[in-house]
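agent> Task received from the user: take the single chain below, predict its 3D structure, and emit structure tokens. No templates, no multimer pairing.
agent> Plan: (1) validate residues, (2) run structure prediction, (3) serialize to tokens, (4) report one or two observations.
agent> Step 1 OK, no nonstandard residues flagged.
tool_call: predict_structure(input=
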Amino acid sequence: MSDYSIPDEAHYTQQDEWIRWDDDRAFVGITDYAQSQLGDIVFVELPAVGSTINKDEPYGVIESVKAVSDLYAPVTGEVVAINEELGDTPERINEDCYGDGWLLEIRASDEGEFDALLDAGAYEKYLAERDD
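)
tool_result: status=success, residues=132
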């Protein structure tokens, strides 16, 4: 599993999304593992700014040359920004999934949900156990 980047400063879900906190807001994206499994990403559909996303429920769609997949919320919160650049350049997700390829910025509403997220070590172990 060492072939995939798994930054320590983020937390992860079993749906292969990451979340990274910055004060009272959090940035959300898909993991290096997810983007590599999807292949070349060609389209992303994200929710409107001001909408609410709910933990473990779909909030958008990501399409690649291989598949179309739902995006699942790592925590419940209000969408305060989306990465507008992805409309014209969705390949940024493949190039820099933890940086310029972020998807959403949210204001989380239930700090108790953070406890269910995986740290980098737990996510790496999860990937190793499900390695296909």
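agent> Step 4: summary for the user.
Helices lie at 32-38, 92-95, 120-130.
agent> Done.
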